[in-house]
Amino acid sequence: MTEQLFAQDAYRKDCDATVTAVHDTGVELDQTVFYAQGGGQTGDRGTLTLEDGTALTVTNTVKGDGPGSIVHVLAEGAAPPAVGTKLTAAIDWDRRHKLMRMHTCMHLLSAILPYPVTGGSVGDTKGRLDFDIPEATLDKEEIATRLAALIEADHPVTEQWITDAELDAQPELVKTMAVKPPRGAGKVRLLRIGDNVDLQPCGGTHVKSTDEIGAIEVGKIEKKGRQNRRVNLKFAS
């Protein structure tokens, strides 16, 4: 099991680590600042720097087969370091910070549109959420105005933990229909925005306040089925 330092501090950019397992595509470490792809958020990229100065490029980070295992996928053709190798793991911080901003913005969008979420994607330049909305007409300008207001209000973004049993007793906290909250440790992390803007389970990385998201543009609103409506967002240039 890899200790997930990003869950303790999403702003931490690097850490010392030791290789604990080697795979065809990459390596596992005893601890990491790299977020593994999941919950709609793409995996982190960055570098693993060995003690002799050799820098290995991490092109993606994914979940391994074992509970809590994280695989750092290396660039094609790179020779993975052996088990026991000590190194420094460093994320591509600029990209990660954009992912944190967009992921937090996705939570605001789900608060503005209180419908079941059927899918989503969090990228470093754009993101989208799909909603189960029967025969609904969404107002693009209204969504943009409400998003901007929530961002500018500088609401704090915090976390709290509840037990699996407490989550089972409050099923309304789960907005996503396909993606299930991360479980397995007996407790679930909730992301809270402001006092009552949004509260839902999430294992992703986020900024500390909504003002940090910056300017957002609402893109196309697409019909993706009889009841599916897709709302696209992107960072304003």
Number of strands: 15
Largest sheet: 6 strands, antiparallel, barrel
- General shape: globular
**Looking across the biggest beta sheet, what order are the strands in?**
2-3-7-6-5-8
The CATH architecture of the largest domain can be named as 2-Layer Sandwich
Radius of gyration: 19 Å
N-end to C-end Cα span:
40 Å
What share of residues is helical?
10-25%
Q: Summed up, what is this model?
A:
By secondary structure, the chain is an alpha+beta fold.
Describe this structure in words.
- It is a single chain.
- The protein has four helices and 15 strands.
- The protein is an alpha+beta fold and 237 residues long.
- It has two domains: 89 residues, Elongation Factor Tu (Ef-tu), domain 3 (Beta Barrel); 140 residues, 2-Layer Sandwich (Threonyl-tRNA Synthetase, Chain A, domain 2).
- The protein is globular, with a radius of gyration of 19 Å.
- The model has no long low-confidence stretch (mean pLDDT 92).
Task: Note the topology.
Layout: E1 3-4, H1 5-8, E2 14-22, E3 26-29, E4 31-32, E5 46-50, E6 55-63, E7 70-74, E8 86-91, H2 93-112, E9 117-122, E10 126-132, H3 140-152, E11 157-163, H4 164-168, E12 187-193, E13 198-201, E14 216-223, E15 228-235
Parallel strand pairs: 1-4
Antiparallel strand pairs: 2-3, 2-8, 3-7, 5-6, 5-8, 6-7, 9-10, 10-15, 11-12, 12-13, 14-15
Helix pairs in contact: 2-3
